Amino acid sequence: MSTFRRQPLDHEGDFQAFGENWLDLLESLICRGRAAGADFVEIFLENTDNLGILAEQDIITSVSPSFSKGAGIRVFSGTKDGFVSTNELTENGLIQALDQALGMLGFEILSNQKIVFEGLKPLMDYGLSKRNWLSQCPGIEESSHKILAGTRKLNQYGKNLTVRRASYSRSWQEILVASSDGTFSKDIRLNQSVGLNTLAAEKDHRSSVGRRYGSSGNPQDLRNWDEDSSAEDICTSSKKMLYASYVQAGQKPVVLANKFGGVIFHEACGHLLETTQLERGTSPFADKVNQQIANEAVTAIDEGLSEGAFGSISIDDEGMESQKTVLIRDGILKGFLSDRAGELRTGHKRTGSGRRQNYSYAAASRMRNTYIAAGKFTPDNLIESIDDGLYCKSMGGGSVGATGQFNFSVEEGYLIKDGKLTDPVKGATLIGEAKEILPRISMCADDLDLAAGFCGSISGNIYVTVGQPHIKVDSITIGGR
Amino acid sequence: MNKQAELLDSNRLRGFFQGLSKTESIKKWDLGASCSNDLSVQVDRGQAKQLKGSQRSSITVRVWNRDGKVGVTSTTDLSDSGLEKAFRGAAQSSHFGNSLEIPEFSPLSTSPLPDLVKPIYKHRGIKYLFELLRSSEQALIDKHASIKTVPYNGLAESDFKRVYINSEGAFRHMEGSYSSIYLYARAQEPGKKPRSSGAVRQAHGVEALDINGCVEEAAVKTINHLNYQRINTGSYLVCFSPEAFLELIGAFSSMFNARSVIDGLSLSNKDSIGTQISVPFLSIYDDGLHPANYSSCSFDGEGTPTKKLCLVNQGILESFLHSEATARKLGVSPTGHAGLGAKASVGPDWLVISRSNTSSFPINNSLNHASFSEKYILIENLNALHAGVKSSQGSFSLPFDGWLVNGREKVSIEAATVAGDIQNVLNSIIEIEQQSLITHQGISPHVWVDNLVITGEE
User: Fold this and answer.
1) What's the confidence (pLDDT) of residue B408?
2) Which residues of chain B neighbour A360 with C-beta distances below 8 Å?
């Protein structure tokens, strides 16, 4: 048991690494919050060191380092919560932020109140083996050379390219989470991505193609990036799409390729299985646990454990260890993605899915690596089963609305005629409603693969992975011309 | 003055960087900095869902090294050590600066600023915001039996401060306050699918927000979507609401963006100025100083004064949006639309779309969304612009919310997309209504376009 105590500490200028040195201050802050009447107090500290580099044609045109530090303090009273973020990591700055959060919930600061708080547990340092990650990453010069090699390869493989771009993004993040249930956890995260983009033009024909590759936890990732095969892949797509016709609108069967094809499940279903959506009453699946919501060919998983995947995390932003969560098994809904507020408000147990872009957002239930599991067919089996349809080789972004209507764009498509791929087409947008589309995923191939992406929602933009094997949707609306 | 504002004190920043520039042998530098205090609330059926506050600050430092090359670094740490780290980071990255396009200080960074008079409201506090939003939510729910929840809602107030300083004496400073409310209701009738719509309002302070107007608009839109049907795929006469047309033009604003033009990412090229790009009764301005632009600033990221700029005059492309570097490259003056960076970004502030006053193109009074008696599609909002727009190709394929209107009958469309080519759209406009509406993202009248392909769920 511990009581509120206040010690003069000055961490300004000592903010190189989080650790045990923060224990006293964090405990005193939590005591202060609990003494004021808060049921729960959580403090999230963050320190980041990011780098962005852009190459256009054959020169580096932008180098953008950025640094950030800050804290997000969240207090709960029952299911209500108040959240305050600040850049100021001094003792006074943190007390001011905490008091503001407490004041939001109507609590008064009581410095002599005895409260029950067992203190923070021993620090769980998930970043112990990751301390050298930042220094092991390539510096500006090495990164610049690598992405310039990418634009040179685009020049080698491309035809009619008027724009060749390569970009590199490195995000290094150190976090510390302390909360009144004793959680005291630290982690270091590293996410890197590299992207290639082209614009090809000839007379009235234009095509723009982009790909982004991303990983987590591997300082060598940019060094290991195969710019040759990436550039060749993009240039092949660019050539095919330059003269492609616009897709004809209609309702047809489609085959969605593996990797980024998984955006369909992310938008059509994944968001609707976040407890954030249950809280809002905007998920059609809220009361469907253990009921059939998808074709029995569909098993869907969200996890934060796949080594090197863009959405993998050792702990979530509430200090809980990551886990594998089966969302749908053989078409039957098995569970939801839940964070602390979600558990309080919906009763669904936390799944290590509390995530946020940075300290200025409260954590919310969000996806990590989300994918449909492999099935028993080959990709050719799926295509051969269609007389007149669309093959979606590469997908763009998408979104889902308050009524479960989802959409996503197709960057590279091919018509399917009599079981064979034929002409390339562009300009397709697929739309539908989750409850209607999930039962129509009738075939899953055996080639599950993942792709890196970014997801924007209530708690900001986060790193995620989408994935799937090739899948067949029996019928979907194709927006086109 | 709070701690963030103290840290952003211009004398402190100028003195600190002057000192650093001597020790780092950097003679030329500039910076843009901002800080804000924000409060926001969300409610859920009368209960507080989230109460949120934040104190934010950030600074971007740009330096020119001995070789004249430029480096930049951003940080949210405005302490002395944070500023020093940022300055050194910028100096380090300057070694990798682009020697083929070196930005300079804007020649207008010391010119007089426009007289932008904006009221500054004091914060009303979280309890006031909560009570106001709770009553607004209830008022919206009370509007119709089918409206059970308002799943997306928020009320926010903030005050902010922005600064631009450079080593040659430029000093820009601005303070302001801003408030907004959004209410998106979800309604459902027995045996039918849920429907959703909403409204947004902005002002300089909470007291000035048109809350009743927001509730009323959200209710009317939501209720009007209750009666829905599927539509057949085909070519339709389409009327874009002011919001929808502004969304479409905004998504293709690279047509007017000199940075995109120079980078080869625009449908326009440097010779496009003076060419006809649309029907002759369309004019497009960017007017960041418009009183309805509540987040306006009197200077851009490079310290250039903000001004009203004609982009398209009677269908003819008249000018591009510029930063210092793009303006110098194309031989014109900066227009006040730049961010601050090693490669400054360029973007519009506040688009104003209007019907050109020309006697050659008389108003077609029969085409008015309030009175037109034949079948057409009224597009209320475009969705998923980030995914369905290929701005460098000119094509779009976008889901939308809207209605099939036939005489007095107005039926919501269950789910549909609209697809086309922006250049064709601009040249297929058959009418721009006279009355303009102020929206939260600009000003526009209703705009009519013929023969657009709509895909419905069959």
Assistant:
1) 82
2) 54, 56
